[in-house]
């Protein structure tokens, strides 16, 4: 909470534009590293940017359940199955924290889901790739959750309080996910020749899409400059991508696996790994809906939403019943 300058309780940010703060004052508050809370006045652009990013993030979490969920029934042991079920449930939980954070900005959860379903809002490109073998589950944990941690740890310091706080718990759980993925791959890469080949094949397929998770390069990222000025993003897409590469190369060595990039080399002068050029045309195609699994992911998501209508109706009926009872008790 940055000051005493609140909108009236209950009106919150749905009316934020009516209570647009002075932009310079707001910027000073951000620059002083204060947190913005739901009832604080905020520029409409700030609110919209947050709703866009948080909703996209929430959608990614729930769509992200699909590629891994597909392997729950095929996990190679009871222990692996229990761990994978817990991980997929964690992703559902992350979605819930994030939809709740978006609601503090005046967004309506049902409307956000409608926007996901009709393509007005996005979800992460990474979940439009298929999980072909068990090694893909290890690789998603290691690389995809690893990339998510690099991207999301700075979000724990996001200027918007509810998003930052949600990220603290999400990041703790992502760390566990990353370690379980590494452990699956370690087992495979120290197993039979066939298991090692399966692990290598999965890493070869997921490496470049994982680098694309960080978004377009800085000079092609229309939102970065403003999001960074507002303290929503703390680092640029390219800075985070570099951090991920630097962290991951030694881990690949520890696994005894290679990364599919002949240009990957330590640069003494920069103190970072150099890496090859990313084919961003692939990222843009996947974002446009033309990735290998976009259609399948959306069809499954819409079907699950329709089939879950009875559960949402029941929850509303239950809440209404209890609200009526409380009202009666008060009367
Ligand atoms: N995929 O100006 P830019 C997870 C869009 S969940 C799709 O750089 P921004 C996990 C971008 O939205 C992973 N779209 O944008 C879950 C923008 O389009 P709009 C999700 C992408 O927002 C389960 C346009 O391209 N993580 O990790 O400044 C299991 C221009 O980009 C992508 C988050 O959502 C992409 N990869 O930066 C395991 C984290 N990249 O909206 C793991 C929070 C870019 O203007 N989000 N676009 O139409 C962020 O940090 C930022 O939103 C991004 C993009 C870095 C993703």
UniProtKB/TrEMBL annotation:
Organism classification: Bacteria, Bacillati, Actinomycetota, Actinomycetes, Propionibacteriales
EC assignment: 1.14.13.149
Gene: paaA
Organism: Nocardioides mesophilus
The UniProt record lists the keyword Oxidoreductase: yes
One record GO biological process: phenylacetate catabolic process
Any single GO CC term annotated in Swiss-Prot or TrEMBL for this entry: cytosol
GO molecular function, one term: phenylacetyl-CoA 1,2-epoxidase activity
Protein name: 1,2-phenylacetyl-CoA epoxidase subunit A
Class of enzymatic activity (EC top level): oxidoreductase
Keyword Oxidoreductase: yes
UniProt keyword annotations, A-Z: Oxidoreductase
Annotated spans, Disordered: 1-23
